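The freezer alarm interrupted the setup, so I double-checked each line after restarting. Inputs confirmed:
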Amino acid sequence: MKSDENCIFCKIAAGQIPSNKVYEDEKIVAFKDLNPQAPVHVLVVPKAHFATLAEMDEEGAELVKHALQTIPRIAAGLGLSGGYRLIVNQGEDAGQTVHHLHIHLLGGKSLGEKIV
Ligand code: AMP
Ligand code: ZN
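Predicted 3D structure, all chains:
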């Protein structure tokens, strides 16, 4: 599985630096965002390193598929019975700051204003 030794999410996925994990299996890890934007704000992260969807290979696509299939179970475990929002920032205009693909999972309140 691809990894980048300078990438903070690769280090979290490998257990080399601490995180507040809420879910983990052999393909993905989910942990609490350090700067939460909602009462529940978790990052769902494929364990292989790629920065954006444009750089995703077949293995990465398998991991993202698995993430999407697993998110309902992660959300249920977090008590998000009222729903949740997923956000995937891609590149500069979207404000992506960590260049390892991740899915923001937000919920725990009515999320209010949206851009879509
Ligand atoms: P993005 O702007 O989509 O790249 O999101 C990156 C997210 O990662 C931000 O919401 C940060 O708060 C979060 N973040 C950065 N470093 C960590 C970390 N070590 N543990 C948890 N969340 C982090
Ligand atoms: Zn990485």
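Quick read of the result. Strands lie at 21-24, 28-32, 40-46, 84-87, 103-107.
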